[in-house]
């Protein structure tokens, strides 16, 4: 990232400091300040940890009057800590999910657990959902959002697409869900994209998948993953569905240049530190209150503050995507909630305008929030899902339906019946309960 500073003139002394000199000096000063701050707060934290107990004890010993009775509920709130904040290792996340399923049997779909080792030697969790009958219409590759996993809400969404006739494949990124890696840590976004492309390239090589059209599905940060995967490997995909994609930080939200420089300096010193402030995505992304509460039950979600290295990777990625929007050439379905405050819907409009794709569709749902497929009322989820399946069907070529020389496509009526049986009510996190598909 290049920060340009204009020249500065001191008229009374006649001195002029060049833009290059000033920029370098500013960077050095910021780096020194950042280092001092890190050392200071680290020392302060160590001192606090060593003295908090003794201070508490001495305070109680000096109190002559008995302390007033504490409110049990208030005490519970003080001592309750979300255990998901300590799921740094893949082993701890897998254990957390296993314990969760023991307590919540209704979330256990009998899902098979499968891991593959990628070319970087990391163990990745992968999952697939297949149509019950006939040859798939196409392949849908899932790219989940920041802090998410394919083992929770995506379990329900994938079943809908499989019921609609698509082979669906998903994976947890390194550092997320059940895959190996430090929780929530993305030191290099290009490596993450390569991991996704490597796994999905292997799927395309399956004999039973030969000749099928391949579509990317990217939600939020997954939209950035999908766009980068297309830009790096343009011949691998036949289209992309982007839901509330993270593809540019709005100018009004972009941090000042000096904060960017401080973040860069700190990210080189303590990249894994959770120092970047963040709002609860469920609170501002889920409009339906019941589904918002259900989202908080995800046992492997990353809920801590973003790590410095991750924040810097995401910032650099959105900067790159913004510069390269005009290179996006594959068929696009861009979906965004008009009331989204997590990713800016105006950026989706810019992507739609700048992409050189000849086949591109933008759908804005004015009252919807960020999580259109997980956090909206059922009527909105069904509307968005219907739009996605309609778009996919229109771009799945006739060769996808040929099986033993016969057309295996279901009639509209037959498909409607299948979807009516399979469409899950997402409050139940993907459990098929027979809601009618509008």
UniProtKB/TrEMBL annotation:
Transmembrane segments: 20-41
Keyword hit for Transmembrane: yes
Stored InterPro entries: AB_hydrolase_1, AB_hydrolase_fold, Hydrolase_4, MAG_DAG_Lipase
Pfam families: Hydrolase_4
Segments forming domain Serine aminopeptidase S33: 135-377
Keywords for this protein: Membrane, Transmembrane, Transmembrane helix
Protein name as annotated: Serine aminopeptidase S33 domain-containing protein
